[in-house]
Design brief:
With 224 residues, this protein is α/β, with parallel strands linked by helices. It has a single domain, classed as 3-Layer(aba) Sandwich (Rossmann fold). It has helices spanning 6-21, 24-34, 48-56, 75-81, 94-104, 142-155, 185-192; strands spanning 64-68, 86-91, 111-115, 127-133, 156-167, 174-175, 178-179, 196-207, 213-223. The longest helix is centred in the N-terminal third of the chain and has 16 residues, at 6-21.
Length: 224
């Protein structure tokens, strides 16, 4: 087998070095510190698809709900307005969570806030409903994916629900300068099949503030 061209070898080594030195938390802190909420691609004042799944499973108002990668999204706002009493938001970015707290004002005291990377989250309690819109697809290493799924399996109650939204195979391949892992309903179902049974998979278009359209796949699962 011919040896790699010297330039190709250098480029490959640089790419590997960048991956090894990449700090996921610092990357997201910088984004949240420098970009206004209404300019980021994931901005969504009314999370219609997420609320569809909340309503579909007819959760009780005392159900324990966790929003993974929730940052300063508006899901917590809508859940509070609907009367849900036990809401947790997890995000890798302190800045994102502080922005959400500031927006919610006194209502922020009704939410539990966790600063953690979804890939190494160590849950200390169990939840009836695990929601993730666009955090899981940032995990591209097999070890991070397996760690996430194991955390979900540990954190979700028996017969509890997980709803995962990612870019579909027709969606973007990058977000905020980071490569992501695209999924279809079938590939996501296979990823979670060890601990979960699929309930439903749907696709949905998200319109970004810049006017582009991102195609998502959302799957709901019930823990075995």
């Amino acid at each position: 087998m011919p040896a790699a061209h010297p330039i190709q070898a250098v480029a490959k080594n640089i790419k590997l070095s960048e991956m090894e030195n990449f700090n996921r938390k610092s990357h997201w802190e910088n984004i949240y510190e420098t970009k206004p909420l209404d300019t980021v691609s994931w901005y969504q004042p009314h999370p219609a698809t997420s609320l569809y799944f909340v309503n579909q499973f007819e959760l009780s108002k005392t159900a324990k709900i966790i929003d993974i990668g929730g940052g300063d999204s508006f899901l917590a706002d809508h859940l509070l307005k609907s009367g849900y009493e036990d809401i947790t938001v997890l995000d890798i970015s302190d800045t994102a969570i502080e922005r959400a707290k500031s927006r919610l004002g006194s209502d922020a005291l009704k939410v539990k806030w966790i600063v953690a990377d979804a890939s190494d989250f160590q849950p200390t309690e169990q939840y009836d409903f695990w929601h993730d819109r666009a955090a899981f697809h940032f995990l591209t290493e097999a070890s991070d994916i397996e760690s996430y799924i194991q955390a979900a399996a540990t954190a979700i109650t028996d017969n509890g629900i997980a709803v995962i939204g990612t870019f579909s195979e027709q969606g973007p391949k990058k977000c905020s300068g980071i490569e992501i892992k695209q999924y279809s309903g079938s590939t996501m179902t296979r990823q979670f099949s060890k601990h979960f049974e699929k309930a439903e998979c749907i696709t949905a278009d998200h319109h970004t503030p810049s006017g582009t359209v991102q195609n998502f796949v959302f799957c709901s699962f019930r823990k075995k």
